[in-house]
Amino acid sequence: MLKTEQPVQRAATSAKRPERVAWVVLLTSFGVFCLLCLTGWAYAYRWWTQPSPSVVQATALQKLFVQVQPAGKIQPMLLQDRTLVPDDRVLVSPEAPPGPAATIHFGNATIALWAGTDLRVGQLQQIWSTPAVGPAPFELSSGQLLIELDGSDEQLTLAIGGKLGGAPVVLTSPGRYRVRILDNNSPTTAEAERQLGRGLEVATERGLARIGPNEVESGERLIEAGNRPQPKRNRWDLIRDGNFQQLVDDVYRQAKSTTWGLSSNPTVVGAADTGNPIPTQACTDLIARTGCEEPYLRLVRKGGNTKGYVTAVKQQIDADVTSYRWIRLRAEIKIVHQSLSKAGESGTECPLMIEITYSNTQAANIHKDYCYWAFEHPNQNGVVANYPYIDTTQVAPNVWQPINIELKQDVGELVKIESFSIQANGHDYESQVRNVELFGEGLVEVPRP
Fold this sequence. Notes:
Structural class: mainly beta
Oligomer: single chain
CATH architecture of the largest domain: Sandwich
Mean pLDDT: 87
Low-confidence stretches: 10-15, 127-132
Strand content: 35-45%
Radius of gyration: 33 Å
CATH class of the largest domain: Mainly Beta
């Protein structure tokens, strides 16, 4: 019988070639070592380029209006450029001019402080390693902050004081935000916003803000007033009752208007007292106030008058507008009648004028006038104003015309709007206005220290 040979059992290759195992272990270890080195160098570079965790650098822009109350001290002192430590407070006087009064630089955050701000320095740590819920490096009790965060995967936590309490505000980077305490006595709360009551507002120009379970995305703002969060888009209305509905209702109830002040005054001695603002709204049933059309305002003076007069409505605005990128004025106007041609050399014969009283960086109580006229009579030599503060425009008669003005483009160095007036001037006239809007949009860049 033939014998079959049994296959020779060979040892595993790894057993016969241990040098291969050694090389695998060596190369793997070297790869892990390189990875650890790269990671370590990345964190070391990030640590080296970041400011010290405890460095909060404050700079006064309006030096006579910014104080610091050092930790453990009672008496505040004027803020010079200095490094702040935990429990230091930066206090900006409510009398400070509109605009940023001081800046704080901390890590990747630049924070601008407005008039009436009370900001306390809290627990400090490296900003890029701050956990999602952790100690807040700052606490805001009043006023307004404009915050710019650079970098990525970073965030800033801001506690809210001033007896408001609630969840802290967490701002992610990169982003631009405005955080404000609404208050009737705050110089950064406009007259139109005081009806909201005391509360917190967080606005996001870009980035993402979190307040408890609420998220505020780019182009949005959240108002917490009276414990009722009200998400809105980023538009700040600065005028009340722009459609005149409340004024119409007040006149119907024979109640005093709480929004518009009505006035009519002669501009020439001996002028007859015959011009009046007339809030108007046509309704199917005037008693039940049903089937009503859109309300509007009439500024009327008739009767063949030959001396000057002004009929007007006016509203206080009191709005610091330095944090807004745009201030927009919109309305619809119609000129039904004017007995004088054009608008007059100084606007005193302008049948419809919108007057903005404002402050700039140099002075207060300045006015910008927008004059509109429709009629030029052949037997009159009418003129228009050539003063730089009066913009004169001819419009078609008896037709509703829209107007759209960006005030920051028209008015240089605009910082505050004080009041808003709509008026008719001349001898006999009738002008009409509806759907008036005055609002801020966008947030400006934060000034760098």
